[in-house]
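Long-time lurker, finally posting.

We've been working with Thioredoxin (Halorubrum glutamatedens) and I want a structural starting point before designing mutants. I don't trust myself to interpret raw outputs, so I'm hoping someone here can both generate the structure tokens and explain anything notable. Sequence follows.
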Amino acid sequence: MTQTSEPVPTEPVALESADDFDDFVTGHDVVLVDFYADWCGPCQMMEPAVEAVASGTDAAVLKVDVDQHQGLAAEYGVQGIPTLLVFAGGEVADRMVGAQTEDALREAVSGRLE
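Top reply, 14 upvotes:
Generated this for you. Predicted structure of Thioredoxin:
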């Protein structure tokens, strides 16, 4: 298992600059990336589940507002929101589109944690 250079945050981290995306996903072993929008009802419904994954697993959680980061959303083929990507070792390991349960999110990241 590789050592991360940064401690895993226990709360979702909002992406401020697209330039920070690669550093975040490569700076942690497993990252759940939540592509969302503030106006998206299913995104709002998923917020407690996303927060639970951040606080209850060893996965880091990064929230990407698709309205602010349209280029990044396009780069990762986000066509509907919420779209959740699981990165392991800096590479996309899983993709989920639409509202997911907390259990589904935990299962997606736990399969990547060593």
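Before you design anything, note these points.
Residues 41-56 form the longest helix (16 residues).
The first strand starts at residue 13 and ends at 14.
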